[in-house]
What we know:
Layout: E1 2-6, H1 10-21, E2 25-30, H2 36-45, E3 48-51, H3 52-57, E4 61-64, H4 71-78, H5 80-83, E5 87-90, E6 95-96, E7 104-105, H6 113-120, E8 125-129, H7 135-139, E9 150-154, H8 157-170, E10 177-179, H9 186-203
Amino acid sequence: MKIAVLGTGEVGHTLATKLASLGHEVVMGSRTADNPAAKEWAAANGASHGTFADAAADAEIVVNATGGLVSLAALTAAGAENLRGKVVVDVSNGLDFSDGFPPRIVTPDGVSVAEQLQRAFPETRVVKTLNTMNNAVMVDPSRVPGHHNVFLSGDEDAAKSAVRELLGSFGWGEDQILDLGDLTSARGVEQLVGLWVRLYGVLGTGDFNFAIVR
């Protein structure tokens, strides 16, 4: 598949590398076409890079791996015409570190970042997932032993099914993927990150995850 990964940070780098290793045609998008991190990643992975708009233009799926506070600006730069009809996988978190650690969780207009993006780009198909764990665990769930979960939130079943397939290719089992329902449920998983950050401070490692036990 042709997949655009928007964001050149650690999360974007990890996801783009995994997707490329699985044989997808990946383009890493950034604010400027000459972003050094994107150029270095593309050279190392035999892939392409460009602006947010360049990356999104021909993609079948767009992964938003930008910081939640700048995600709306990133997708705006990508262009509504380049996003129309496409699945947007939102892994972002609206974390504000301006007052230090722990960060404040920002809820734009009282909703999740994912809902903000869906409202701004109504012709896209936003699915929230993978935001409740370390980026290494996102693409290699075996780093955490035993049963643990990844969550899905979205308004369209077909879009969630496409994302479920991607998660499966990362190594997530069907019994680990938990569909929480429509996109309003993304509010809960974005708030859960506040607990994740506290646990990271206590445990001193990102190799852990949440498990729903019943």
